[in-house]
Amino acid sequence: MEMFPDICGQMLHEFRALLKAGAIGPQRLLQLMAMNMFAIDNTALKGKSLAMWSKRKSFI
Length: 60
Hints:
This protein has about 60 residues and is an all-alpha fold. The chain has two helices and no strands.
């Protein structure tokens, strides 16, 4: 099983590769990061709402 520091190191390595000249344009990288942050945020909200729904269902 991978550990969090190992995963962070790999993510930083891949992020550096994206920032190299010519790998991807800065505007496209910003768009991809914004879409990823939006998807993560929406998933987190759905997880919270599903947890609240399952708690309510158990009271019924």
